[in-house]
Design goal:
Blueprint lengths: L1 H18 L30 H15 L3
């Protein structure tokens, strides 16, 4: 009987420990600053930054074959 009571108390303490973060005060988070995300590397009308992709493909041989 003592083992059952001890197991119940221990499992209750564990569950109370898991529930404690839910009882904490909520944190207010500001919106991220996206004012600088409108350049050619981040503008993606089709889901891919087209102008940045084209420029990186054109410049790729310069990085692969040294001058």
């Amino acid at each position: 009987m003592k083992k059952i009571v001890a197991a119940a108390v221990l499992s209750g303490a564990v569950l109370a420990g898991f529930a404690s973060p839910a009882l904490a005060d909520p944190v207010v988070v500001d919106k991220p600053d996206t004012s600088d995300l409108n350049n050619k590397w981040t503008t993606a009308p089709l889901g891919v930054p087209i102008f940045g992709l084209i420029e990186s493909v054109v410049k790729a041989p310069n990085f692969i074959i040294p001058n």
